[in-house]
């Protein structure tokens, strides 16, 4: 289709308010047949609200939604499905004990004689859908145990079976490996070639440029630009998203002090073996490596979440008791875990209480928690970290992913740690918030805090870290100074291949 062709879906001048928060303000977007349209913006820019309007979850306060030129009103997700709009979420929800084909055709199974399910016809239709998508997946396989990528493909097949005109993919690659991302990209190209309109939402700009033909940028709930990607650069999109230039950290300008954290011959059978390293005051050390290399397990052992079989963890010359998170906290260690929702926050608890949780003793008087002290405490840290929220009394579920991550950081920064361990600190957050997290880590290092960072994003590792430690199969295999580190050197060490040989 040409750019002048009528859009298959048009959201026109949509606005949506939740209490005091204006989530969307006069936002418009057009999706066209056979086009992948990227949607980008910082956390809190309004992307999730826009998706929920298209999904029929939230009605817009004003504006109109047109599908194939006809104005439609969505009173629920079923209306969206019947209109031809399908949403593929980051973590799909399938019926785990049903087969792949049963999940695709749930409630719509083809019937044979005697009104019994025609399993042969269902299998044939599922095979045809997977063939259209260019993937091989056994329709008879039980859904339990499918990877996230495979679950997403099942959801896409279901959308095709419903003859969806528009497929919205909301951060579909956040939990996928590089191989799975490539496979998903092939599926998206198949959708585009088949005439489906795809709205692709991602924080990863390389994915936007590699997959999309058009892009729309939102900022603070407002439309900023919508245009073909040709002629745009990553810097153009970043400036549009954040409204400012981003200043990056220069590790070569940092002052490094004496060793604060010393890990010596740490071993946990089946997870990691003989791991030794130090982190000095004012230093950011990155643990790099493939998923499953043992990085997160080492961090959890240092903090005491997991017990280890041999070795020692020493903080400022004092050996810490193994398997004791309270002991680690008392000594001055903080841990920002990889999974902020499951391990970093109590999602139904208020924002203020989440910020204050590790510091409750400091906020008590005569053994009782003083609510006003808690609110002042949380408000102070919310201001310092530029948290975007409606009310501190609102639950953590009300926050965007990037702002949830800021709450996790706030609760540990408030304890003034000597060592801060951050596991995938910027996963699933936008470039603007990512830059703020980097700034916070830089400020901590300047204040003399020792920072141990685990990250799967090599550009982040190279941008932030003073030293890079590479793990492979539970062992520490390489240490690289910032000046000597390259993506090729890290990948070669992580995969066990000579540098310059593709992994």
Q: Which terms would index this structure?
A:
17 helices; six-stranded mixed beta sheet; 25% strand; alpha/beta; globular; 503 residues
Give me a quick take on this structure.
This protein is an alpha/beta fold and 503 residues long. Helices cover 33% and strands 25% of the residues. The strands form five sheets. A six-stranded mixed β-sheet has the order 6-7-8-3-9-10, with helices on both faces. It has a six-stranded mixed β-sheet with strand order 16-19-20-13-21-22, sandwiched between helices.
Strand content: 25-35%
Kindly report the average pLDDT value: 87
- Report on the biggest sheet: 6 strands, mixed
Oligomer: single chain
From the spread of the alpha carbons, the general shape counts as: globular
- What level of helicity do the residues show? 25-40%
Sequence of strands across the biggest β-sheet? 6-7-8-3-9-10
Total count of strands: 22
Number of helices: 17
CA-CA gap between termini: 38 Å
Structure class:
alpha/beta
Q: What are the SSEs and their pairings?
A:
Blueprint: E1 9-18, E2 21-31, E3 36-40, H1 47-54, E4 62-67, E5 70-72, H2 77-83, E6 85-88, H3 100-104, H4 119-133, H5 148-161, E7 166-170, H6 178-193, E8 197-201, H7 205-211, E9 214-219, E10 222-228, H8 234-242, E11 259-268, E12 272-280, E13 284-289, H9 295-303, E14 310-315, E15 318-319, H10 325-331, E16 333-336, H11 340-344, H12 351-356, E17 364-365, E18 368-369, H13 371-384, H14 401-413, E19 419-423, H15 431-446, E20 450-454, H16 458-464, E21 467-472, E22 475-481, H17 487-495
Parallel strand pairs: 3-8, 3-9, 6-7, 7-8, 13-20, 13-21, 16-19, 19-20
Antiparallel strand pairs: 1-2, 1-4, 4-5, 9-10, 11-12, 11-14, 14-15, 17-18, 21-22
